From TrEMBL:
Catalyzes the decarboxylation of four acetate groups of uroporphyrinogen-III to yield coproporphyrinogen-III. Substrate binds at residues 26-30, 76, 151, 206, 321. GO terms for biological process: protoporphyrinogen IX biosynthetic process from glutamate. It is an enzyme of class 4 (lyase). This is Uroporphyrinogen decarboxylase. It catalyses: uroporphyrinogen III + 4 H(+) = coproporphyrinogen III + 4 CO2. Its EC number is 4.1.1.37. GO terms for cellular component: cytosol. InterPro entries: UROD/MetE-like_sf (IPR038071), Uroporphyrinogen_deCO2ase_HemE (IPR006361), Uroporphyrinogen_deCOase (IPR000257). Signal peptide: none annotated. Pfam families: URO-D. The gene is hemE. The lineage of its organism: Bacteria, Pseudomonadati, Pseudomonadota, Alphaproteobacteria, Hyphomicrobiales. Pathway: Porphyrin-containing compound metabolism; protoporphyrin-IX biosynthesis; coproporphyrinogen-III from 5-aminolevulinate: step 4/4.
């Protein structure tokens, strides 16, 4: 089967399919007992991401269980800064911890080490394309530079990214220097994923929504545009999904300014905004993950609403953000069944 014949790829090319194809962000994760069993075999999260045997297995688990139309590479957005030498580690119960951003750290970053460092991730992509069902789209991804950089200013994240925003205002040159390094590394990384067998890639900008108007242009749109242009300049047929979370009021500017082929919608996106964007590019989303936690009528009503609101155009059904660890796997099965009933 040609890549372009897979359901998700047909939607990314602008086709409306009914029922729409479905996958969900973080679908390989802690809500699955089989994932937790495999995760226990790795000494830390980064080692988990760099182990092709383990990463391949957990990526395949939700495909075996639910038959999603797309499989997304199991990895993490922080393999990119790690690959170019930015000090990053994962702490249990806390998540990613980066050394605070400084000129001294940036002076030591080395793009030339990234390929070898990321070889295990690329091997995982190669294995996945070989082992996935022929009809399943394989998605690669990276974190948007702003979202990755948010964790670097004081070494960790906060809910409103106060430190990152203040740091960008006080020393925009330092932030720009780091962003530029991440752009370069991300372009090369996404190209390698595509060459290894990924059908399309997604850029996750989880913290785009905390920025003001000028910040959104400089730190979200411009770096994403540079990545899209860099990838498409090398691989003209590449399909790229952008996901600027909590950015409903700026989606048109984002789509126009970045050149992405499709855009992910979070669950707060108003229907009229989503429908207007859908006239420009295919959309992906946008069920509230908490409806998936709740199950029952709340889940059914949410699915019906998304299908009714966005089903008349090119749609990839997904959550408005990642599935959460407390989600009952039976609720996921119910969601897949309901979407496929149309």
């Amino acid at each position: 089967m040609k890549s372009s014949d897979r359901a998700v790829m047909r939607v990314l090319a602008g086709e409306r399919l009914w029922p729409p194809p479905i996958w969900m962000m973080r679908q390989a994760g802690r809500y699955l007992p089989e994932y937790r069993e495999v995760r226990a075999k790795a000494k830390n999260f980064l080692d988990f991401c760099y182990n092709p045997d383990l990463a391949t297995e957990v990526t395949l688990q939700p495909i075996r269980r639910y038959g999603f139309d797309a499989s997304i590479l199991f990895s993490d957005i922080f393999v990119v800064p790690d690959a170019i030498g930015y000090p990053v580690r994962f702490e249990e119960g806390r998540g990613p911890v980066l050394e605070p951003l400084s000129e001294a750290i940036l002076d030591k970053l080395d793009q030339s080490r990234a390929n070898k460092h990321l070889d295990p991730v690329i091997e995982t992509v190669t294995r996945l394309r070989r082992e996935l069902p022929e009809e399943t789209t394989l998605l690669g991804f990276c974190g948007a530079p702003w979202t990755v950089a948010c964790y670097s200013v004081v070494g960790h994240t906060t809910q409103d990214q106060t430190a990152a925003r203040v740091g960008a205002y006080r020393n925009p040159a330092l932030m720009q220097r780091f962003i530029d390094q991440l752009v370069t590394a991300s372009i090369r990384y996404l190209i390698r994923q595509l060459d290894a067998g990924a059908d399309a890639v997604q850029i996750f900008d989880t913290w785009a929504g905390v920025l003001d108007e000028e910040g959104f242009r400089r730190w979200s749109i411009e770096p994403t545009r540079a990545i899209v242009e860099g990838v498409k300049g090398a691989r003209p047929g590449a399909r790229i999904i952008g996901f600027p979370k909590a950015s409903s009021a700026r989606l048109e500017a984002y789509v126009t300014g970045t050149g992405v082929d499709a855009v992910g919608l979070d669950w707060t996106a108003p229907d009229h905004v989503a429908q207007a964007i859908q006239k420009k590019v295919p959309v992906q989303g946008n069920l509230d993950p908490m409806r998936l936690v709740a199950g029952g009528a709340a889940l059914d009503e949410g699915i019906t609403h998304v299908l009714k609101a966005l089903g008349q155009g090119p749609l990839i059904f997904n959550l408005g953000h990642g599935v959460t660890p407390e989600t009952d796997p039976a609720h996921v099965a119910r969601m897949v069944e309901r979407v496929r009933q149309g």
